[in-house]
Amino acid sequence: MAQLEQDPHPLLARLRATEPVSWLDALGGWIVTRYDLAATVMRDPITFTVDDPRFSTSQVLGPSMLSLDGAAHDRHRKPFTHQFRPAQVRERFVAFIGTETDRLISAIRPAGKAELRRQFAGPLAVAVATEALGLCDISADAVLAWYASIVAAVSEVTRGRPVPTAGTQAFGQLRDALVHNIAHGDVSSLVAHAMRAPEGLRHDEVVSNAAVLLFGGIDTTEGMILNAIRHLLVFGDRDTLAAVRDDADLRSNAIEESIRLEPAAAAVDRYATRPVELGGARIQRGDLVTVSIAGANRDPAVFNDPDRYEISRANAASNLAFAQGPHACLGAHLARAQTTIAIGRLLDRLAGLRLNPDHPHSPRGLVFRKPPNLHVLWSP
Question: GO molecular function: any one (predicted)?
């Protein structure tokens, strides 16, 4: 388990080459590491479902679009879908993201140094998520505290442990804030749109789905931003950074390559609904099947020299970082927009941006992978 949390890629590569569907006692289930097999599992919710009482997120947040399949999943997801389409993301969020990004950079710029997770990426992700859900009257510190407790609770459940009290309390406080928003909040928020939808979600169902969007939106976006800037600073020279800063298409591809090399969400869980053979393994009904997105994204059958960070990789966007099938990430366009704007503004406004050599910056995490801290320097 420690290897999966710290540096899983050597193990995932060995499994992918010799046994692409492997039983791991540490997970209590199967792990899928080959690209084609990973895509097969995610695209087949009839055979590989999330609708199981063991599903970790539902134990913390309750039933939602993330933990349901079939008609129930469609009913929970559809009320939120429209607001995450590319046109709506551009119309509603791009200007807000730019303003918030500039505000955060202006706050840290004079110091010539910062820890980007807590001073930039986390606050940006929180600001956008709370704007989307109409929780603007809640402090960023409070939301980050809820989010940290929820992430920790999901990770504990993934390890086979009970939901910790802190996670239950954090969700309770988030639920109270969302219920207040439903009654008194911004009529343009995602929560308000969902309550008006013809699918007729109940209050508790809207709250669970909004919590999933908040929790997922903060974590994956924070991780995307941190991993992308880390990859650029580790592997890019001055000319590369200037090119990424000035060329929006190259910047977009650099981000796709970053989420390929180190996806912020490294794995997703499914449960077999029937006995099935997959990649030579005989999976039994009820077995846990963990799709290693981190492993699939480095499959040499799809990505040449897969352990190399290559900002101009032609098929970087073929990565599985946002999953596939009915559970493909609803907020992918919003997360990409935030990361693209954030990276462009950081490189533009912080001259000589570089990693602080006095601090470690390797990514960590079993399910959600990013540097615990990312200390950087620049010329103020």
Answer: heme binding
